[in-house]
Amino acid sequence: MKKIFFSILMVLSVMAAGAQLKMSVLGDSYSTFDGLIPAGNEAWYFVETQGNDVSAPDQTWWSILADANGLEIEKNDSYSGATVSYSGYRGEDYKDRSFNTRADRLGNPDVIFIFGGTNDDWAKSPVGEFKYSDFTEQDMYSFRPAFARLLQSLQRLYPEAILINISNSDLGRDVTSSMKEICGHYGVANIQLKKIDKQRNHPSQSGMRQIAYQVWKQAAPHIYDHLRAVRSDKKK
Question: What's the whole-model pTM score?
Answer without folding.
Answer: 0.91
